[in-house]
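Feature request, filed as a ticket because there's no other form

It would be nice if the structure record came with a short human-readable summary line next to the tokens. Right now we just get the raw output. Example of a typical job, pasted below so the devs can see what we mean:
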Amino acid sequence: MKKSAAYYFIFLYSLTVNAQDITVQVEYPSTVQAGEQFTIQWRVNSGDGEFIAPSFAGFIKLMGPHTSYSSSTQIINGRITRETSYTYLYYLQAVNEGKYVIPPAAVTVKNKTYYSDSLRIDVTGSSVQRQAAQPGANVQPQNAPQSAPQGGQISIDLALSRREVYIGEPIAATIKLFTRVDLSGINEIKYPAFTGFLKTDIETPPLTSLRQENINGTIYGTGVIQQFLLYPQVTGEITIDPVQITVLVQQRTGRSDPFFGDFFSTYTTVPQAVASKPVKITVLPLPGSKPEDFSGIVGKINIKAGINRDTVNVNDAINFKITISGNGNLKLASTPPLKLPPDVELYDPKIIDDIRNTMNGTSGQRTFEYLLIPRHYGDFKIPPVTYSYFNTSTGNYERLTTPGFTFHARKG
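Raw output as currently delivered:
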């Protein structure tokens, strides 16, 4: 969250109750600009009481409270000292310029209520429209599908890069979590069958923490659960069933013992099931009649070929390679057929893949390595190899052709 040029002030208000010092620390900006988002954070050193937030009249409450807890214990000369701190964080947005007073927050301990100081905030006009990114904002990678929450406190979304594709054309998919409540983790993920698609996973970092993201004026904790590519294998309208997850919602159930209590004893986790919406995709057939040498590749590719030597002894091997490189469903590429003289023995090719999957699709190269063995001496020709694919950019089939090669087999 972008802070204004104003300094943040911290006020310490001390109280004494039954020989225990209770303190309330408040951190907030004294000056913000109209339209700016900011935070107010109260820290209370007692977990035995109830925190009561003030009215935020004149401001928009975007999110909160986010509650956190910290504790430390020291033993000095046999004396045990325990310090605790409860933090209550609110996200607000200034609306109109002017001078505003936020009333005191209250802490109720053992049926007694104690108040912090009131907060004075000056909202100034903004002469420049600003769209500053918040710290920790979830920046979408280029060409990644955008997503949005469905509404409610917790939701997940299956965002797709496109909803209408040719058969074999990749769709980038992102499963993303949105929450406005505290979570302790994800317990279970159930993926749909993805019937009619070939699914290829993209390496996705494990979701260990959430980032704050401002979506239409509302702040969510967000995180990417999984990214992958879908390659449609059938035509028509296909429905992807919902992705289902079970999250663990962190709920506070009571107060810890003021001296020996454990932080975890004051919270419980409640499982909650969440599902994305079904998604419909229209898969178009490839147009017209496919060429006889169609490779099955949908995308954009290049081809090259070569032999490792042009002179061998009879019954010695020649290595002939064809490499397909570019973007598309390369792992579905068919083996290029070779037409060789009958005196040259041909073995099935060894296939070597160097292929990468990203949110921009599949790219890299597939190499077909043929072993050719001449059984008689003489000169032999390897005819040019043709290889067709469907170019999604032009909407047409395109044919690639390798050069021809000649080699000589001599008597051994």
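Something like this underneath would help us a lot:
Confidence is low (pLDDT under 50) at residues 1-19, 127-144, 256-265.
The domain at 294-410 is CATH 2.60.40.740 (Immunoglobulin-like).
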